Amino acid sequence: MRKPAQIKIDHPAHWQVSETLVAYPEAVAKMEAQARAIAAGDASELIWLLEHPPLYSAGTSAQASDLVDTERFDVFESGRGGQYTYHGPGQRVAYVMMDLRKRGRDVSAFVRALEQWIIDTLAEFDVTAERRCGRVGVWVAHPDGREEKIAAIGIRLKKWVSFHGISINVNPDLSHFGGIVPCGISEHGVTSLAALGQDIKMAQLDMALRRNFEKIFGPVLAD
After folding, report:
1. By the 8 A CB rule, do 179 and 56 touch?
2. What are the Cα distances from residue 119, in Å, to 54, 96, 132, 135, 201?
3. pLDDT mean across residues, the chain
4. Whether the Cβ atoms of residue 97 and residue 39 lie closer than 8 Å to each other
5. Positive or negative, the Cα torsion across 105, 111, 112, 113?
6. What is the mean pLDDT of residues 91-113?
7. How far is CA 84 from CA 6, 65, 203, in A?
8. pLDDT score, position 71
9. At what angle are helices 202-216 and 107-123 packed, to 10 degrees?
10. Are 125 and 87 within 8 A, CB to CB?
11. DSSP code at position 2
12. DSSP-based three-state secondary structure for 175
């Protein structure tokens, strides 16, 4: 039997929250620099929570036809896995720069742990979020049978160090998703905590994210 990956470690990761919108190129440059430093043994793991100005990012599997409105927002090639996604105000992005050499070198287990982090966090706000086989991200099911995506996952690895990460829709303008086919999935929509009737402040979500991160991945040191 295969030994389970060791996701949780005792060495604390650094936890940082940006209070103002962060431009996408600036965020990518910081992530790449941090990932290189982690790989070289010169920096600690970093979990970085932020919001972006409105933009679309294209993952390595993005299809040109899924960019429905090419003029609506800036579009960035991200280098992460996945297809097109939207980032903007009201959406909590958590970039995870983590050393998988210390966490089991199992990418599938790492992604499942990220999914569980989201699921457990949303459960604190009485939102039942679930995985779906064959569909990336985390989903909510409505009583009428509709399923909508509430959180996205897209990571990249270099030398077993992760960057990019997750995003959770708190109260973004959901119409902004209309310029793309989110993650290449056209038969299901997107939702948010606000659309589900949850009036959650970003700081509340951040506290829940931290609690559940520590349960799954280990301790953090905050600014």
Report:
1. yes
2. 25, 17, 12, 15, 18
3. 93
4. no
5. positive
6. 96
7. 31, 10, 27
8. 86
9. 130
10. no
11. P
12. helix
Eight-state DSSP code of residue 215: H
Rg of the chain in Å (alpha carbons) = 17
Identify the pLDDT of residue 183.
Answer: 58
Residue with tokens 């949780």: 8
Note the pLDDT tens digit of each residue in 149-164. Answer: 999 999 999 999 999 9
Question: E strands along the chain, which residues?
Answer: 13-17, 46-50, 55-58, 74-77, 84-87, 91-97, 130-132, 135-141, 147-158, 161-169, 189-190, 220-222
Q: What is the pLDDT of residue 221?
A: 97
Active-site amino acid positions: 183
The strand pairing partners of 84, in sequence order, are: 58
Q: Which residues contact 138 (CB under 8 A, 6 or more apart)?
A: 115, 118, 119, 122, 129, 130, 131, 149, 150, 151, 153
**For residue 184, what pLDDT is reported?**
58
pLDDT of 47-73, one tens digit each? 999 999 999 998 888 888 889 898 899
How many alpha carbons lie under 13 Å from residue 161 in its C-beta half-sphere?
20
In the structure encoding, which two tokens stand for residue 38, read together? 């982690």
Helices (H), 40-177: 107-123
Phi, psi of 16 (to 5 degrees): -130, 140
- For residue 164, what is the DSSP state? E
67/184 Cα distance (integer angstroms):
9
